[in-house]
Amino acid sequence: MRRFGIALIGFAALAVGGCVTVDEDARDAINALNSGNDAKAVEWSGELADKSHYSRNLGAVEAGRVNMLAGNYSVSEVRFRNAVDSAVDRSEAAPKMKASDLANTALASTVTDDRTRQYYLPPYEINLAIEYGIVVQALNGKVDDALVDARLAVYVQDTIAETYGADLAKDGEGGTATTRKVIDEQGKALEEMIAATRNSWENPVLWWLTGVLFEADGQVDMALQSYRKAAAIRPDNAVFKSDSARSEQQLALSPGKAKLVIVYEQGFVPRRESLKVLIPLYTGFTIDIPQYPENSFAYDNVSVSGSSNAPVAASPALDVRSLAARDLKEKLPGVIIRNVTRAAVQAGAQAAVNASGNDYAKIGVFAANLVVSALRRADTRSWVTLPVAQQVWRDGEMAPGVYDVAIHVNGRKTVARVPLAAGETRLLWLANTGGTLRGASASVGGRGSAPTDLNGKEINR
Q: How confident is the model at residue 162 (pLDDT cuts 50, 70, 90)?
């Protein structure tokens, strides 16, 4: 028994030594997308959506995004619709946010592992699911459906802004001195990442995109409100600022002209890792919390040639990395309180057996507690196939015709063939993954041609 206990302690110590672990399946899926192995990533996301009990909501958005990158737009549309419907009851009159784990900062439970908790989409993921749902509906030629979801997006963003912040302020005050110390320490570690945003739920690209659709549909007042929101959130963005000022004057397209708008995405958002933190109050015990690894970030240098041969720079619009970090910071109080509570339960079991005077029992419980602490992992789940950032570009004075639009990214040039008709507003969606530019274009207003790939060929839907 004594030898067994010593061996168990040694094993636990080795496990504790491996402080940080990563989600290998998510890592492999990202590597597959970067290398062009879309089928492997599609299989991973499909299994997560269809076979996972606790992560099916996460699987829905992962499957939507992966199929979107793979060019399977019809499948992507269904996945995103399922994901949004899991969070929102759709209704033209009055859509309603479903009860969910949005705040997730309260104690809630002391289950053995946070990974055995149901995954609910946090606000930034809900908003991105709606954004992508709008884009893939347009790529499937369903502009009317995209307009319906544009109106839904207005409701969802306003609702989250009104209720979520209040919930965070209310739930974030709990905890003991020990938990507050750990919460504060881990929150400071995220300061650099969260600096680019003012909260975790405002998505200026989604606001701007709804404005583009509303304006193309002639809903000028709705467009104005959306453009204003985008510009207020990201006042340094030249496109948002210009569209907000222009819409206030209710300026329409010049007769016979067309508009091209571009959403450009780069890379993939960092993956969360599991970090073990020693709790001094319970000597020998650790808790497991999610963290982001230290990483540098810079927007890609992107410029586009539209009606002029001179490239015009795209405008940085959304730092998804910052949204994800803010979401993590908002979840940390609940994660830490739950884990410290578990450590207290373990410490109580140790104290009880120590009082019994049974040395073998002491060693057994101590070893078992070490093993549990060593093998437990933090809940590192988040939407990992999101881009790290988005930029936008617009030219509203383009003559009708077929354009070979030159996209310059960090000195490398890619050409996308885009058809434009008089009075049309056309969206070109671009995603830079692993040095490869993916994407397609679709009309979101006016009488334009069918959705096309980057070579100008009609998409087979």
A: confident
